[in-house]
Design a protein that fits this description.
The structure is a homodimer of 490-residue chains. Chain A is an alpha+beta fold and 490 residues long. Chain A has 3 domains: 12-69 and 128-285, 2-Layer Sandwich (BirA Bifunctional Protein, domain 2); 302-409, 3-Layer(aba) Sandwich (Rossmann fold); 418-487, Translation Initiation Factor IF3. Chain A is built from 14 helices and 27 strands. In chain A, the strands form 7 sheets. In chain A, strands 3-9-10-16-13-12-11-24-27-23-22 form an 11-stranded mixed beta sheet, sandwiched between helices. In chain A, helix 2 packs across helix 6 (180-200). The longest helix of chain A is centred in the last third of the chain and has 26 residues, at 391-416. Chain A is globular and about 80 Å long. The two termini of chain A are 26 Å apart. The interface between A and B is large, with 63 and 63 residues. Strand 5 (91-94) of chain A pairs antiparallel with strand 5 (91-94) of chain B.
């Protein structure tokens, strides 16, 4: 168990925070609510970015970049959107500083007040649809399949590293289509891209579903989502994809001349995932010793640590370690040889455990004699002596195995934590146990709000693969067409 | 000649602007001074990013991310820096909007005023050094070799797409070292990384040099730079790398315990290139027909255009074109087959010329008979009939050749436009002719300022490979140790 790391049982929330900081993933900054993503954390985020970006491109998308600032008046154009988004934002009001005449530093120059305030983007629908108006004239200009990697700001009162920060990094896709059918297809396609990526790469099982109108994106007709379950029984929304209908096209007057000559409004979608995924990653796999990373995302998949006393022993070990390093690198494995003499092996063991490196190879003098190495798995904490000649194959199959087993373990836990409830008492006690509660709901916002007030639980989603079996609402007893998933959530 | 594109001779500045917009590289947004980087422009920027990023990593750097906002008080900590940077900035003063009680939309909530204003980063030295204070205790924590890809904002009154925009994209490296020697090595290494990249990838010849104190980065002891020359005879600074000495370490109290046990201030560097490079790319190679792209940066290196009348001809051509497409793709060439029937071949020829695609393959019925294709080069506008069986090799060697020849052409132009001047009259007339003027200067800021006032020319750099031959200042006649390069600049 890593020193200084609170155990999960003791205080899950503090364990999370300790882990993020001690594993060098991120840190709080001097700016309220804004985080610093440290190099090790950023290396994981880069791997997430890279893989997602290539999946976006495979599905026909291109990247572009739109302004950080949005004129205040843009927000008011789509009625639901302004209600949902325009409140807790960073507002730029001035464009110049000047020396304080009293010599005490710099102050805002009141002569440099903007005519119209600029909002730091909390999301970019408005500025992008304002642009699409210029890009779209004819059906030949459609579809527009654009994605943007960007920083966004939503002023938050209570922040937590990766999970809820005032500034965060994300991607936001914004597409425009000639037909409703194409736009619905796109929003469903993208939730599948997200779901497949999160399951295959992050080894996190997801439930694909749609949101109730309460939880829907401001301005969307339908929000598709992937929901995940953390070790403490709380749900976490990992990604959303919105079918916008013609709402933004109408708000920003984006029309096109169709093949039949008629002028029609464009159909839209938007979809995004953020650095929040880092939070999901940490809280799905990690343990009281620190981070546990699925091999496909680990910046370092294997670390080689030499165990020696004195220079002579090191000189004997070093060429063997270098040979292993070279072999593994040649197989495309991300491997690090930590031969620093400033730190002891025990310190290094702890360090790489804390940082979630999937496999550790320890090489000592006795290994040299026997032609072996000790291979330790981060996920199971098990150790094994492996013949040097088999090492490369062993490592490769271990890495695949870890990826598969991390997913299987999380999937088992998810499946074991979806509990049906058919009356209010069992509903409440199921919620208290944690996990998703599958229950009937009468379909009204009013009931959902009431349940939220009473239990702090919300409808996480209406699963896409739901069986349409009717019943009666857990709260009101009114008729319900299908069960939905409730949970307390991050 | 592309329609609607102003010629360079007619109006260079308008030609540039027309080209950026018509070639779909970027566009102005509704937000003053902020540009939209369109998908085609962004695809080029992504290639620049990718290659630079891998060169940064090869030289031992890692990426991280620091907050967008900087507390106002941070700026005042480094005296020179505040003078140079803290003036024309976007200032966040409030964190909430609310519905206007009169129902007319949304207004800034005056109750949500920040205690301390936040500045949208114009550059990140201050917030990063404030962080390094926490990261550095011992010599073991050094060096820190961090880079960040980010957006920055410097409020500009006169903006031009890519060249000068209020928001722009860039990377900023920020490193911390135990010794002065290491920090100087790093700042020199990075200007070489920039120089090599710009020459090898962008096919733009550079002059490596140092800045005079007037042009030096605010807070640096030495600024290294790469300077380039545009077709209109104006210079453009393409990248800078700063040796910061211990200035920021002292301002933010960043000390470390050295091997000898003593506490010492850290030595720093910072270095950056931005979307300005896109401007340099456009203005170095392009012509009156549009963009000309070096193959290494071109998102599409080769386009295949079928020439046909009616479906039957198309059906005969299509399998041949598909075979060529497959062959070229297999060789790792970025190739596009434009088989759209919504646009005519002539329109497509113009379009890809405008967009600077290095090679165009046209395939028509007569080519089928003869087993040939017409290959057109964008840079020379020359055409050649090539046997289909030789096509793949021909394309590959053509792409390499274009890359080399674009550089050679630009290098010849640069070399021909560095003119020595030994008296004021020839200095002024050399400046009017355009290009760099190599002249003696007495080394004072005063003289440099006077020359700038009189001619609008500044010292672009003191070339690193300068011969140390003494002379007398072009303006004051005072002694000078070496010639420096003057020019009017972007």
């Amino acid at each position: 168990m890593a020193k200084n790391l609170t155990t999960r049982e003791n205080d899950y929330s503090r364990w999370y925070n300790d882990l993020v900081i001690q594993a060098d993933l991120a840190d709080n900054s001097g700016v309220r609510g804004c985080m610093i993503v440290k190099p090790y954390g950023f290396a994981i985020w880069e791997r997430i970015q890279q893989e997602l970006d290539s999946r976006f491109k495979e599905t026909g998308h291109v990247n572009a970049y739109f302004p950080l600032f949005i004129p205040k008046s843009h927000f008011s154009k789509e009625a639901d959107h302004v209600e949902g988004f325009a409140k807790e934002c960073a507002v730029v009001t001035h464009y110049r500083l000047k020396n304080n005449p009293n010599g005490s530093g710099i102050i805002v120059d009141e002569d440099a007040k903007l005519e119209e305030e600029l909002i730091v983007r909390p999301t970019s629908e408005t500025i992008i649809w304002d642009t699409y108006k210029k890009w779209v004239q004819s059906y030949r200009d459609l579809p527009i399949m654009v994605n943007q990697w960007a920083n966004v700001v939503r002023w938050e009162m209570r922040t937590r590293l990766f999970l809820r920060t005032s500034e965060f990094l994300w991607q936001e896709g914004h597409t425009a289509h000639a037909t409703e059918k194409e736009a619905i297809f796109e929003s469903q396609q993208m939730i599948d891209v997200y779901g497949d990526f999160v399951e295959e790469y992050m080894a996190i099982p997801v439930i694909r579903g749609t949101k109730s109108s309460n939880e829907r994106f401001a301005g969307a007709l339908e929000t598709f989502c992937i929901e995940t379950l953390m070790q403490d029984g709380k749900a976490l929304q990992a990604g959303t994809s919105h079918f916008l209908g013609q709402n933004f096209a109408k708000a920003f007057d984006v029309k096109f001349q169709d093949k039949d000559g008629g002028m029609k409004f464009v159909w839209g979608t938007s979809w995004g995932v953020s650095t929040r995924l880092m939070g999901a990653l940490i809280m799905t796999h990690s343990d009281d010793n620190g981070l546990v990373l699925p091999p496909k995302l680990a910046p370092i998949q294997v670390v080689i640590i030499p165990i020696y006393r004195g220079e002579k022993e090191f000189e004997e070990l070093d060429p063997v370690a270098l040979k292993v390093l070279k072999e593994l690198k040649a197989s495309g494995i991300r491997v690090k040889y930590d031969n620093r003499d400033t730190h002891k092996p025990g310190w290094k063991f702890n360090e790489y455990e804390l940082k979630g490196v999937p496999l550790r190879i320890a090489l000592g003098p006795r290994d040299l004699e026997k032609g072996t190495a000790e291979v330790a798995r981060r996920d199971t904490l098990s150790k094994e002596l492996v013949k040097l000649k088999d090492l490369s194959d062993h490592i490769k199959s271990n890495l695949s195995e870890i990826q598969v087993q991390l997913y299987a373990k999380a999937k088992k836990s998810l499946d074991a934590n979806i509990n049906p409830a058919d009356d209010w008492e069992s509903f409440e006690s199921a919620l208290d146990k944690g996990g998703f509660v599958s229950a009937h709901w009468d379909g009204t916002s009013e009931t959902e709000n009431k349940i939220k007030e009473m239990t702090k639980a919300t409808i996480r989603c209406i699963p896409i693969e739901n069986k349409k079996i009717s019943g009666s609402c857990i709260l009101t007893g009114k008729p319900s067409k299908e069960r939905v998933l409730f949970a307390r959530a991050y």
